[in-house]
Amino acid sequence: MTDTHTEQRSPPTDLEPIVDHGALRDNADIPFHDNTDVVDADIVAQVAELGDLAGVGITNPDGELLFRRATDSCSWKIPVTTVAPEDDFAGEIRSHVRETIGFTLRLDDIVGVWDISLETEDGEQTASRAFVIFSATPESGTYDLTDATAEGDAVEEAGWFSTPPEDADLIPGTEQFLD
Q1: pTM (two decimals)
Q2: How confident is the model at residue 11 (pLDDT cuts 50, 70, 90)?
Q3: Is residue 37 very low, low, confident or very high in pLDDT (cuts 50, 70, 90)?
Q4: Fewer CB within 10 Å, N- or C-terminus of the chain?
Q5: Helix or strand run (H / E) with residue 24
Q6: How many CA atoms lie within 13 A of 109 on its CB side?
Q7: Residue 79 and residue 85: Cα distance in Å, rounded?
Q8: Cβ distance 21 to 132 under 8 Å?
Q9: φ, ψ for residue 31 (rounded to 5)?
Q10: H or E stretch covering 15
């Protein structure tokens, strides 16, 4: 697997929508990771069916990271949501967290973009998936999950963790928030 990126941080993202993650590639302030891997055709086919993702790391004043389980059978992840073509990555993750956890977010930074490409050994089948990962803080300044009221279908469970839960799925970018 190859991985290329820069190590700088971006300006706040509440200023404009992000519809084309590829347009961020030329922004020297945003770490852009290109990952390519050769896999079986079945995996390429599975990934081809998946949408791009927006995720967010929210760290409380104690340095703990917010993880959530969407359903009782899901693994723990930082908040993440699918982004359809032509939708705004920043708007979708803000909406998702408000609807499922109850925090209204101020997006502070883009911590990175991961453009994952898969191909079969012969190169005839390919698929790609993008992850745009933000850091954010609750606009209210409070991190109390018991006071947060989801505006839609709430997640099964959410909590603050100093280390990832045992069955956590560390999507690309999660490691940016861990010591």
Answers
A1: 0.88
A2: very low
A3: very high
A4: C
A5: none
A6: 15
A7: 20
A8: yes
A9: -65, 120
A10: none
CB 119 within 8 A of CB 36: yes
Local structure of residue 77 (DSSP, 8 states)? B
> Strand order of the sheet with strand 126-138?
2-4, 32-38, 105-119, 126-138, 52-58, 80-83
**What is the architecture, at CATH level 2, of domain 2-177?**
Alpha-Beta Complex (3.90)
Residues 83, 34, 172, 29: what is their CA dihedral angle, to the nearest 10 degrees? -80
Report which of 113, 56, 62, 49 is spatially closest to residue 79, judged by C-alpha positions.
56
How far apart, in whole angstroms, are the C-alpha atoms of residue 77 and residue 75? 6
What is the full DSSP assignment across 100-149? Answer: HT-PPEEEEEEEEEEEEEEE-TTSS-EEEEEEEEEEEEETTS---TTT--
Map out the domains of the chain as residue ranges.
2-177
